[in-house]
Amino acid sequence: MRCAEGQRPETLESLRKNATYQRRLFDQAVKLVRPGGIIVYSTCTINPGENEALVRYALDTYKFLSLGSQLDAAWLLGTFTTVGGVPTALAPGPEIQDW
């Protein structure tokens, strides 16, 4: 279902299929999480079907779920490496580096 890294979906239908696939994955996560547990949902897409629409689906379908607060991820992401003032890479912050 997923495109290779760095490639875009070829059709609108493939975008819809990806959203359906994500929904099925989320449904399984709900079945597997322990009572009181946390589901972290994260994507690498700007497809609303996989993002906002999935969150709306989850909250409408699973009334016992609630949104947690969003984390300030600046400490997690660290800083951009730049070449000539152009961002080229994002390095993790030292708090999460384990090497």
TrEMBL record:
SUPFAM superfamilies: S-adenosyl-L-methionine-dependent methyltransferases (SSF53335). This is SAM-dependent MTase RsmB/NOP-type domain-containing protein. Keywords: Methyltransferase, RNA-binding, S-adenosyl-L-methionine, Transferase. GO terms for molecular function: RNA binding; RNA methyltransferase activity. Residues 1-99 form the SAM-dependent MTase RsmB/NOP-type domain. The active site is at C44 (nucleophile). It comes from the Eukaryota. InterPro entries: MeTrfase_RsmB-F_NOP2_cat, MeTrfase_RsmB-F_NOP2_dom, RCMT, SAM-dependent_MTases_sf. Belongs to the class I-like SAM-binding methyltransferase superfamily. RsmB/NOP family. It holds the Pfam family Methyltr_RsmB-F. The keyword Methyltransferase applies. The keyword Cell division does not apply. One of its GO terms (biological process) is RNA methylation. It comes from Aegilops tauschii.
